[in-house]
Write a structure and sequence with these properties.
It is a single chain. With 310 residues, the chain is mainly alpha-helical. The chain has one domain. Helix content is 71%, strand content 0%. It has helices at 3-10, 13-19, 43-59, 62-82, 94-105, 110-128, 130-139, 142-147, 153-182, 191-215, 222-238, 251-258, 261-273, 282-307. α6 packs parallel to α10. The chain is elongated, with a radius of gyration of 33 Å.
């Protein structure tokens, strides 16, 4: 045997342990942990997250926006231009024609009268479909996930309402631009008047969106929700002054129209945008719409605590 083999054979186990360091004695690197992201529990953060989620589905699909604008544009371009009430008094002197039109519609142009009503039209139909988002979120399971987060139930409902309000106002602004391009009277338009008109439209949209979201809190059937939309939309539209002035309606319908909040929104919008003679004062119009929005928004939040569940 060689000297190296003899030395290896005579080396004891303890010596081998000294010569070969054990695994346990080797230094172990200390793992570094990243700090967990801070959870933002602000109610406004959760409210905006829910609102923006629904808005993304809208502004990332421009076809949906285009389709939603077809109906009011058709009403303006076809119905508004075809129904020329000035032709009925065309044989009268110009001064008398204007007097008849103003006494009937509050303005000399029926097209301008209808254009202001179309703003409430687009608000009404956009708000009506705000409840459909609740129905589909419930059917596809997102509602259960939202209710499992720290976000309050009132914020879930308010987020649905706000996304509908934002969509409604954007579409109303587009419709107003189209109406002006088609010949709507702009002689009485001012920046303050436009701001006031969109304030009243905001209140109308907030109240109506709260109403339709409230009606959808316990619904998981989209057919039921569509039936509710069809049941309420047309009476709210035709039992208002959106298309025709109140004085042209029978007395019983005038009473119904006076109870319809859409009529007060139309009245204020026409006064602010086209300088039409109002059937009520602007102060009354704003008072009715503020009360309408506050009552329905409050009911929606209160009912969400009782009806909105997993």
């Amino acid at each position: 045997m060689t000297p190296e083999e003899i030395r290896a054979a005579t080396t004891t186990t303890e010596e081998k342990r000294v010569l070969v360091p054990s695994v346990e004695s080797r230094p172990v690197p200390t793992p570094t942990w990243k700090a967990a992201p801070k959870l933002n529990k602000s109610p406004l953060h959760g409210l905006w997250a829910l609102t923006n989620r629904d808005l993304k589905k809208w502004y990332k699909n421009p076809i949906q926006l285009f389709i939603s604008l077809i109906q009011p544009v058709v009403w303006l371009a076809l119905f508004g231009k075809a129904l020329n009430f000035s032709a009925f008094v065309s044989q009268a002197p110009a001064a008398l024609q204007n007097q008849i039109m103003v006494s009937t519609f509050g303005t000399t142009s029926y097209f301008s009268f209808l254009s202001a009503g179309m703003l409430a039209f687009i608000i009404l139909f956009t708000a009506a479909f705000s409840g459909m988002s609740v129905v589909f979120d419930r059917r596809f399971g997102f509602m259960n996930k939202a209710l499992s987060t720290p976000v309050g139930r009132g914020a879930v409902v308010t987020g649905k309402v706000l996304q509908s309000v934002i969509r409604s106002l954007i579409q109303a602004a587009i419709v107003l631009g189209i109406a002006v391009a088609l010949g709507m009277d702009t002689t009485h338009m001012t920046a303050l008047g436009i701001a006031g008109a969109f304030t009243i439209l905001f209140l109308m949209s907030f109240g109506l969106s709260s109403l339709f979201v409230m009606l959808a809190l316990r619904s998981s059937d989209w057919q039921t929700q569509m039936a509710i939309i069809n049941l309420l939309n047309l009476p709210l539209l035709f039992a208002s002054n959106a298309l025709l002035p109140v004085k042209m309606m029978p007395s019983w319908l005038q009473t119904v129209t006076s109870l319809n909040p859409v009529s007060y929104a139309n009245d204020a919008t026409r006064q602010l945008l086209i300088g039409a003679t109002g059937t009520s004062s602007l102060l009354l119009d704003f008072g009715v719409m503020i009360g309408f929005a506050a009552i329905l928004a409050g009911l929606g939040i209160v009912l969400s605590w009782k009806l909105l569940s997993k």
